[in-house]
Amino acid sequence: MVNIKKAPFYILTFVQTLFFLPFFLQSNIGSDWDAYSLIGTYLIFEESGQYFPSRPPGFPVYELLVGFISKFSFLGIEKSLLLLQYIIMISLNFLIYLFFQKRKDSNILIFIIILFSPIYLISSFTVIDYTFGALFGFLSIYLAQYGSKKYRLFIPLLLAISIGARLSNIVFLIATLISLNQKNIKLAKLFNTLLYTFFLSILFYTPTHLNLFKYLKNLGYKTSELVCILNLTNIDHTLYDRIGRFILKQINYMGFIAFVIFLIAIIISKKQIQQKHYPLVVVFLLFELSFLRLPTEEGHLLPAFIAFMLIIKDFKFHNKFLNLTILFLVISSFFDLKFYTVDVVDSASTAELGVYPSKGYLIEEYELREQVVNKNYHYENSKITLIEAWAEGCPN
Question: At what angle do helices 256-268 and 319-332 cross, to 10 degrees?
Answer without folding.
Answer: 160
